[in-house]
Write a structure and sequence with these properties.
Layout: E1 7-9, H1 10-16, H2 23-42, E2 55-58, E3 63-66, H3 83-86, H4 95-110, H5 121-132, H6 151-156, H7 165-168, H8 182-191, H9 202-206, H10 227-244, E4 262-263
Antiparallel strand pairs: 1-2, 2-3, 3-4
Helix pairs in contact: 2-4, 4-8
Region (Disordered): 243-264
Pfam family, one: Pkinase
Domain Protein kinase: 1-211
Length: 264
């Protein structure tokens, strides 16, 4: 009998975890994400909707990317949108996906979105400026020529000259903040670089020193088993359905693998 490997979107897993993923687990997930994104970019494909709810993780520790045509496009997508998109750039590149990868890395570290705006481009830019500092022509050549609505917010946010990213992910932590080595912070910082031309590529990120330092990436077969999470989510869904329709029979259900198109 074939073994069924159930899948959940990564957002759901993060929401139900009591503790964030360990550094070695994050490295395992990031390597798989970067390999998938590299495969897309090598084939001249932009995803445009990378976020944790568009990533699937199965009980074998395998991470898969939902096809951009089937991805959940609208809800929460601004939280992972590159600043060039938010500021109305007419031309964009694979760098937009790499920004989203950086947002996903930060979320894996802290169990919450890094730039948690309320749903408008202007507020999202404000949150980015508050953490990364306000961009200028030195950090982002050509920035002042952008005409998006968020530009007014950038002008308002000029007081944010200090970058707070390292404070959110210190090298060591005794306060419960997620900590990140110098090499890990370098990768995160290069993913979340304002200038798209200077943002690290998927190919270069896969070769980053962070993946070669201790702790090494965990093997997929040793990643946490989320069968219990699947069962818990199924029970929760059945309880909700029961409340909505008291006549529904609360029978056990099988959580089958998604049939959505995915990238390896």
């Amino acid at each position: 009998m074939a073994v069924e490997y159930m899948e959940h979107d990564l957002k759901e897993i993060i929401k139900t975890m009591k503790q964030p993923f360990s550094p070695s687990e994050i490295k395992c997930l990031m390597l798989q994400l970067l390999e998938g994104v590299k495969n897309l970019h090598d084939n001249s494909v932009l995803h445009r909707y990378l976020k944790t709810s568009n990533l699937l993780l199965n009980s074998r520790g395998e991470l898969k990317i939902l096809h951009s045509g089937l991805a959940r496009k609208h809800h929460g997508n601004l939280l992972y949108s590159a600043p060039e998109l938010l500021l109305g750039a007419k031309h964009y590149s694979t760098a937009m996906d790499m920004w989203s990868v950086g947002c996903i890395m930060a979320e894996l570290l802290s169990n919450e979105p890094l730039f948690n705006g309320s749903g408008t481009s202007a507020e999202q830019i404000y949150h980015i400026c508050r953490i990364l500092g306000t961009p200028n022509e030195t950090t982002w050549p050509g920035f002042s020529k952008l005409t998006g609505v968020g530009l007014k917010v950038v002008n308002f946010a000029k007081q944010y000259q200090e970058k707070l990213l390292r404070k959110k992910f210190p090298a060591t932590s005794f306060t419960g903040l997620p900590f990140l080595s110098d090499a890990g912070f370098d990768l995160l910082n290069r993913l979340l670089t304002y200038d798209p031309e200077k943002r690290i590529t998927a190919d270069a990120a896969l070769d980053h020193d962070w993946f070669r330092e201790v702790p090494l990436p965990k093997s997929k077969e040793f990643m946490p088993d989320f069968h219990a999470l699947n069962a818990q989510t199924d029970r929760r869904k059945r309880r909700v359905m029961k409340r909505l329709n008291p006549d529904i029979e609360e029978t056990s259900s099988t959580n089958s693998s998604t049939d959505a198109q995915i990238y390896p």
